[in-house]
Amino acid sequence: MTARSETITNFGANVSFTPRSVYRPKSELEVLDILRAHKQQQIRVVGSLHAWSPLVESTEVIISLENLKSVEVAEREGQCVAVVGAGCQIKRMLAELRKSGWTSPALGLITEQTIAGAMATATHGSGRQALCHFAKAIRVAHYDSATGEPVISEVRTGDELRALQCSLGMLGVVLSVEIPPRAEYHIEEWLTIEPSLEQVMAAETTAPLQQFYYLPWNERFLVQHRFETKAPRSWLAPLYRLYWYLVIDVGLHLVILLFSRWLKSRWGIKWFFRWLAPCTLVRNWHVVDRSSDMLIMEHELFRHLEIELFVRRSNLQDAMDFTHAMIRHFGGEESLSQRWIERLPRELSHSLPELFGSYTHHYPVCVRRVLPDQSMVSMSSGGDEDYYAVSFITYCSPNSRQAFFELAHALSQAMDSMFDARCHWGKYCPLDAGKVRRNYPELDSFLRIARAFDPKGQFTNGWLARIMPTTQLDEVVQKST
To answer: pTM for this one?
Structure first.
């Protein structure tokens, strides 16, 4: 199998690197051959590269699993299971499952990701657990801790499975994932605009799969009310899908690009959200459609960059109030009040006045509910309280993002300090080791298992080593022996 060097750039064009060797194996045996040939080198795996953190970076060996994309539906112990190759994109998995009347137990906003990439970073949808929560078995190629030779393990139970469900690529090369599909189902959806978060949350009791958007400069909430239903698919569902595609997926984004990237007009952005955007929304149009069509967006049509922060339900109201205050501060409309300044980390409270008016946020802040899951280090792992993923997106061109980075860093620092917010592993992710240790109670257990699957730390890249230092891994192992 021939390896070559090539430059790899992610979807957001904020991560680019040139590894010495890039492989595209066609079988599990070829994966083992690659591991055997590179026992002393750093190895990382790439999926569809639809992520914004440096998680996939490696200057040495990159493995793309794009050829391992099979989808097999079988029955085991009286239950239907889907065994999905690690490199299979979610859209392909959905198409294959639909042939037999099945679908995924959870869906994110997009379907471009590979199943292994989505699992490794705990991709989530709205109103249910992250996709990784549903993995019942995972096959992984790694190094045997006793012999140092590459082996394949199939993990089905215990803490090892919980570590592999959201592994960050630290436990080896995931080869396939076994998930229980569910029968295809329908979702009823309609849009409203609500004046307060209290009213949005009250609607969740009847629409538990809803997601909502804080509209900057409008200061109201667009709500996609959603619930599962046995009603038949609406005969106008194709028209609704066309409306959503033309008006939201394409039209809204073109206007945002016009004002934010091409005209660079902060007043145009504010005018659009205050007056024009609400007029484009068809409210209270109840439509029933397939879940695999209703729960996704064409979010990959235009290049963007995103940071997503997870807060617990009990902190959501304060987190959204703070979001409102930060957007207005950076947008030059109103400085942060004393209420927030007193709660900020000292360094941040000193630097924020200089950033007043430096960035006009130009995209709705998306908020999605995520139920707690069983994995060890996913953003919604642990506890008995629902999480809410608060997503900030920029469509500025790659060379004009510095102001957004300032906002992203300030948000991540402040919301970590005030609300114990967790930063999405696969989005723009300005983490440090202190934040990781504080926010993930099972980190030591995860690192111990990672060391067992990867004795020399070959699947840990430079970024992961900084936020989960190798010396820390060794200390964890020593404590347990």
So the answer is: 0.95
